[in-house]
Design brief:
Four copies of one chain form a homotetramer. Chain A has eight helices and eight strands; from the N terminus they run H-E-E-E-E-H-E-H-H-E-H-H-E-E-H-H. With about 230 residues, chain A is α+β, with helices and mostly antiparallel strands. Chain A has a single domain, classed as L-fuculose-1-phosphate Aldolase, CATH 3.40.225. In chain A, a hairpin with a 4-residue loop joins strand 3 and strand 4. In chain A, helix 1 packs parallel to helix 7, helix 2 crosses helix 6 and helix 3 packs across helix 7. Chains in contact: A-B, A-D, B-C, C-D. Chains A and B meet through helix 3 and helix 7 of A and helix 7 and helix 8 of B. Chains A, B, C, D: Belongs to the aldolase class II family. AraD/FucA subfamily. Chains A, B, C, D: This is L-ribulose-5-phosphate 4-epimerase. Chains A, B, C, D: Its cofactor is Zn(2+). Chains A, B, C, D: Its EC number is 5.1.3.4.
């Protein structure tokens, strides 16, 4: 196989396998994509294929208007959501969607995840947003495309930037996360799940636990992401 | 061993081992069966045999009146429940019973599992039914046979179809799940356990979390199961 | 090494390793013993030795008056409790003590574990007893010996038989379980932990969940343990 | 590489890998250091390096004033906290910091972990202290250095000895633990996580669960740590 998208498919394949290795999915309840901005396409997991049998060459190449460019299989049923986000958010390189347990539980609760500590603040300074359940007129239309609309509307309503907040919960559904590439999108999915579990436990222990105070939010975020960041190599 | 049921036993064996691999059982707290409609028999796990030592040839062949057709061991103590379901529900091919943790917890709570999100709606559009504890007159009779009666009565009372709702909780006991074959019955047992955990967490986070709205229930189910389904290959 | 207790030590060693394999202990927070009634001795884990380095020949042989009969190492700090139980309960062959998570949580809650379902009833017909915290006069005395006294007092107060109820929680401490041999004691420790988790979840889901009704308790227990039992081979 | 700190780096490396093996960290959310008192330096994990690729020679050697003595990589972003503790607490040999789930949940709850049972009392006789969130004037200054100050202030306020209480929660952040060497610091981090989970469950089961009574606290601690201790070899 001498596809020009060989590397892109491999990036996408590895990221999907990570989803499984990190216990973020059971069966086929998740998918990751990786974009190639130059060619205006992205690679995405085929629909309903088990991780145990998935191979790099099964990955499907799709453009931002949902045309299949390369691949013998049907792409993930969530493909249109990915396409919509790539089309509208020019600086993301990968997207991951899961049904991870604690992330879904918060999504089903229809509540934002409050920022309770520095594990959260090391990654984003806002509560993790939970989009309200989709409006009926959107459900009856082009559902997965409209999930993309739902995500952008939520970010607009809450005045969030997709470059700073790289994750969202869709009410009654589950999480989407993104980042500079597919691996980072998976990383953000895992961070979201860890933070979701910690926030759940925090409220069980102390229903009146306060949000992290602003001075600490700012400090921890700048430590990792500010102009003078000093985390990592 | 040149049994005419060799393939059936192997299907049954593999499904039982999956139960273990998916963390749905400890020790021998579970069993799966696979039916052969043509010959009017089913294969089922022998009673009380540990998964570490279970072999395909240990699987017992039983008919729908609970006569042992082939096998040196005593079949699962729940055999009569399986037989009753196969006899009455002509289109199921496999049945699984477990004592998986979250499924049992809901069964012990004697509550239906509310449909809170799309993970649930991707598989069924109803709350997962919990049959009330068995009536005393049934307990004193043919207990496992009567568990079958209890399941059918619950489906009748709640006006459910076994083709659409492939799982149930028996109050104070635990889950049964079924499907077109043994592997699908195990799959449904895992889905039930995952959905049970998510619903538990949802209510802990938000005791007032609403059921999924009808428009979304319908959409997600049709995406996978409707005439125009577009999930999978 | 040609010890006459070679087989006894191996039984004890295997049971201790099972404790670890079943996720019932971290570090050295647990111990199992196996009795040799003919010689009036039992084999027990040495104190504070990690499972990764434990060897069969490290197991210590002790008599019912806590004299070391064979072995170069100091026996478990809980040895006197084991000795007291073997001395007073003539028909047990093995004892296991753990700090398994859910068992300890109930012990710290100082509550009996209510019988909520058939997973519990398949093993015992009573609530799992939780002994009240030790009286101060007993604590100041021979502590581990007195833990044995505490266990027998609790069984007397609650009118329980050690042959029917093979497990107990010590208030503020943790579980002890026993059985016909060391492997059965470990099995009962795992059953207790599973039942403890299910009961915890049940009460979280439904704080008013009723105890299993008497007719079902009786039925399930007799299925496995009655004169006409029909579970297992 | 013939560094004079070769053994120190290996001790530090092994302890960091243990953190991962004991499920106390995801990704790079933790770090362990090991001190060399004679040379007035300590070895610490480099910042942001994944456990899968970490090698003993990557470990960085730092003195108590945060000067890098040896190593090509940037040390952990928490290095100044480690340095401050080593400088002020003359008798500790290792420090571990994690974002372990239950420990963080209590830290985010801003509550001390009550001593509910003997698992806790076997290790320390006090509630596990939770330092209040850092004062704003400290946050704006030298943050990680000031985390050290925050820890010492909390121990002074609560009149605790670092030799008896080898662990703390930093409000809104997470746990630090220490001990005679790096392995013991990791051990204490695991004990803290186990005790944190048990205490969480205890309060869920019985919100009125009482603290362990003083006589039992004293007894269990002396069993392991008193002049006449009789635990271990």
């Amino acid at each position: 196989m001498s596809s020009k998208y060989k590397l892109l498919k491999e990036e996408c394949y590895e990221a999907n396998m990570q989803l499984n290795a990190l216990n973020l999915v059971v069966y086929t309840f998740g998918n990751v994509s990786a974009v190639d901005r130059e060619n205006g396409v992205f690679a995405i997991k085929p629909s309903g294929v088990a991780y145990e049998v998935l191979k790099p060459e099964d990955i499907v190449i799709v453009d931002f208007d949902n045309n299949i460019i390369e691949g013998a299989m049907r792409p993930s049923s969530d493909t249109k959501t990915h396409a919509y986000l790539y089309k509208n958010w020019a600086e993301i390189g990968g997207i991951a969607h899961t049904h991870a347990t604690y992330s879904v539980a918060w999504a089903q609760s229809q509540l934002d995840i409050p920022i309770f500590g520095t594990t959260h603040a090391d990654h984003l300074t806002a509560d993790i947003p939970c989009a309200p359940p989709m409006r009926d007129d959107l459900i009856e239309g082009n559902y997965e495309h409209n999930t993309g609309i739902q995500i952008l509307e939520c970010f607009k309503d809450k005045q969030l930037s997709y470059k700073e907040v790289e994750m969202i919960l869709i009410g009654n559904h589950g999480p989407f996360a993104w980042g500079k590439n597919a691996a980072k999108a998976v990383y953000n999915s895992k961070v979201l799940e860890v933070v979701a579990e910690m926030a759940y436990l925090t409220r069980q222990i102390n229903p009146n636990a306060p949000r992290l105070k602003d001075s600490l939010i700012k400090k921890h975020y700048e430590r990792k992401h500010g102009a003078n960041s000093y985390y990592g190599q």
